[in-house]
Write a structure and sequence with these properties.
The protein is of the alpha+beta class and about 100 residues long. It contains three helices and six strands, in the order E-E-E-E-H-E-H-H-E. The strands form two sheets. The protein has a three-stranded antiparallel beta sheet. It has a three-stranded antiparallel beta sheet with strand order 2-3-4. The longest helix has 17 residues. It is globular.
């Protein structure tokens, strides 16, 4: 599996998970292995954004508009989270067009 995720990649929550909001956080369970994951409020916002396919660039720009964070830090942290979510099987990544 190619692990490269760029600003032009399209990400979407995997169909192999179920998730629910818990106040300002999100709980996610990978259906196949039953492993539970939790996301903090910023992670929950990212999860909300990827409920439908989105370019990583769009997600970064939305976060920059909503939070006071340096652009480089935002992009770096976002890409790392998306790599982690992909490794856990919680998101699908493509280079195609968002639907």
């Amino acid at each position: 599996m190619d692990t490269t995720i760029t600003l032009d990649s399209v990400v979407v929550a995997s169909p192999d998970q179920v998730s629910c909001a818990l106040e300002d956080e999100v709980a996610i369970v990978h259906v196949e292995d039953g492993v539970y994951y939790g996301l903090d409020p910023v992670g929950a916002r990212i999860w909300e954004l990827i409920r439908t396919p989105r370019r990583v660039r769009f997600i970064r720009d939305a976060l920059l508009a909503e939070y006071q964070v340096e652009a480089e830090r935002c992009e770096s942290d976002l890409l790392q989270l998306l790599r982690d979510l992909r490794a856990a099987g919680l998101v699908d990544v493509s280079d195609g067009e968002p639907r």
